[in-house]
Fold this sequence. Notes:
There is one protein chain. The chain is of the alpha+beta class. It has two domains: about 1-20 and about 35-420, no CATH class; about 420-465, no CATH class. Helix content is about 25%, strand content about 20%. It contains 19 helices and 13 strands. Strands 7, 8, 9, 10, 11, 12 and 13 form a seven-stranded mixed beta sheet that branches. A two-stranded antiparallel ribbon has the order 1-2. Strands 3-4 form a two-stranded antiparallel ribbon. The longest helix has 13 residues, at about 1-15.
Amino acid sequence: MRFSLIVALLAALSAGTALATPPGAPPAAPAKPAHPDNQYMKEHGYEGPKTCEVCHPGTAKDFLQTVHWKHASKVTNVKGLDPAKEWGMRNRIYTFCNGNDIVNNLKEIPANAAGKTKFAGCNTCHPGNHLSDVGSTGPAAEQAIDCLICHSSHYDYSKRKPYKTADGKVAIGQDRSVEAALAVGKPSVKNCMTCHESAGGGQLIKRGFAFDAAHDVHAAKEMTCVDCHEAKNHRVPTGFDPNNWANDGVRLSCVGCHEEKPHNDAEYDAHTAKIACQTCHIVTTGGAVAKDFTKWTKTETGFYEPSTIKRAPSDTKPVYAWFNGTVENKPHFIGPSGARADGKSKIYPFKIYQGKAFYDRGTGQLLSMDFAQPTANGDALAGVASAAKTLGLNKIDPVAGWQTVYFANSHLVTKAKALTCDRCHTPTGVLDFEALGYSKAEIAKRKLQSAELWFDKLLTKELKKEE
């Protein structure tokens, strides 16, 4: 399921039809100078990491310790996890994916009713050849790394597809052509979004953000993903997100560039002590809002997918909650931990996602699902049984239930449409002050829902615009 959708996007990208420059967007930046060692590759060809390490020795071994390769890390900010173990897509179970790299390892699924089969698996975006899989180590793993899928602007994504080797193993192809190698550089938006835009079952499903000039002020300024997520030794910094656990131990935030008081307005800057930048500057979200893994829907391809309700970027309004970077982690709820009075939290925007899947009646724990069986014939319980066998669970009693997951909103940044005083401080404003811990008496005393708080300020701004 997921792989077929990713392949469709890869094909579109290779043809230049995805992530195209929208009408009226600024012209593309000037071409960057050629990689300094292009002459070496012209003379000797390109043999994967072996060639890269002529100038970058030790980089491949280093890369094997990153989240992009391991799909897991030690996680210290999520409640209920053993901090000594590693957690992530490799082994995590929750209702957005309801599987992981272990139970949904890339494989050829059973034939459907029409006798057709295909390759499917959660680890199709892993930057290796699958023979050396998620978390593998050693010389073979080092040479299996697909450096160019992230670093080449001329990567042929049609070569990035699974196949069976002569001895029956499943492998993933790579573009190791000299043409691709001669176009190396820092990852572009296309390099990143080829996988990250297609996570969770298809294009714009998981997070539902489009990083383009029409949707994000940073993209409109021709910034790329790595301008903010600037990696060091292939360790990519990330923010804190209840949904996203694995990390490279390097964090980033808006204040890394914009500082604590960026507004040139004392009243606005006073908000930054308790209000996250994202709360005012990310006013919409998108992507899947609900999935049902107990009920699979047959598609025109003859294969099945989990029933999904999704929205386009900018179609969904966020909810707001206090968040101190710590994550509540319960079988039916994954979300922000924090409180107004803890001295650490700020109010952040989130997308709420709800997923239905099977729980074990006896333990109350969420059960994982192997997608091979339901993708072929819609039999969700067969997928649960297969996953349980893989994980060594001998006795399970599946019962359907719902889980709520909070996704941090970190993209779709706007300046022109940022929240202003009248969007929050009214009786029908976007912030539910009582739910956020403010008493009715305090709301009335501080006039938190009254135009008296902001009318003169906004009027002055409006009149200046008209001058």
